[in-house]
Amino acid sequence: MTSLMSRRALFAAGGAALTVALAACTSEDPLAKQANAGDNKNYIAGDGSVSEYGAADRKDPVDFTGTLFDGATVNAADYRGKVAVLNFWYAACAPCRIEAPDLQALYTEFKADGVEFLGVNVRDEKATAEAFERTFELGYPSVVDKDGGVLLAMTKYVPPSSVPTTLVLDKKGRVSARVLGVAEKGTLKALITSALAES
C-alpha cells in the first residue's frame, strides 16, 4: 500500500514538473503559443510594429527581380520614381486575409497618384494565389516567390518568419516605412501619404 502511494505521489510530482516545463517552453515559443490557440499554426505573426525611416536614415534602394503569376517579369527598377507598396503574403495566412480588403481599398484610392502596389506571395501555387485574389478582388499583381528570391533580397526589412509584412518604398526605391503584421488601413494610408509628400 505504501509502495503504491509512493508511486502515485511520484507520478503526480512528475506530471506537475512536466506541466511546468511545458508551460515554460510554451511561454518562450511563439509557434507553440499559436498551436495552443488552435489556429494559424503555420505562420508566426509580426508584432504589429510600425517603423518609419527619415530620409536621412534610409538605406540604399532595394533590389529584387521576380516573376508575376501571369509570367511577366518585374524588378525594383520598375518602381523608381513612384511610391510603391510591397506586401508579403500567402493565402492561408489569417492576418493576410484580414488586411486584403484594406490593401485593395488603398490601391484604388492611391492609383491616381501613381502609387504602385505589388504583392509578394511566399508560399502558394498559382491556382491558390489566384483564388485568393479573386475572393478579395485584388487589382494589383503579385510575384511568385516560393523559391524565396525576393524575400531573400529583402531580409534587411522582412523577417522570413513574419508574414504579413508591408513595406512602403519612396520614389528613390528606398524603404521609407515597414509594418510587421497586419497593416492597419489608417496607418498605412498615413505612411503612403507621407512618402508621396516628399519631393
Topology:
Blueprint: H1 2-28, H2 30-37, E1 50-52, E2 65-68, E3 73-75, E4 84-89, H3 94-110, E5 116-121, H4 126-135, E6 142-144, H5 149-153, E7 165-169, E8 175-180, H6 185-197
Parallel strand pairs: 4-5, 5-6
Antiparallel strand pairs: 1-8, 2-3, 2-6, 4-7, 7-8
Helix pairs in contact: 1-2
Provide keyphrases for this structure:
199 residues; alpha+beta; Glutaredoxin; 2 domains; 6 helices; 40% helix; 18% strand; globular
Question: What would you say this structure looks like, in words?
Answer:
It is found in: Cell envelope. Pfam families: AhpC-TSA. It comes from Arthrobacter stackebrandtii. Keywords: Cytochrome c-type biogenesis, Disulfide bond, Redox-active center, Signal, Signal-anchor, Transmembrane. The chain has six helices and eight strands. It has two domains: 2-37; 50-197, Glutaredoxin. The protein is globular, with a radius of gyration of 22 Å. α3 (94-110) links the parallel β4 (84-89) and β5 (116-121). Strands 1-8-7-4-5-6-2-3 form an eight-stranded mixed beta sheet. The longest helix is centred in the N-terminal third of the chain and has 27 residues, at 2-28. It is of the alpha+beta class. Residues 1-45 have low confidence and may be disordered.
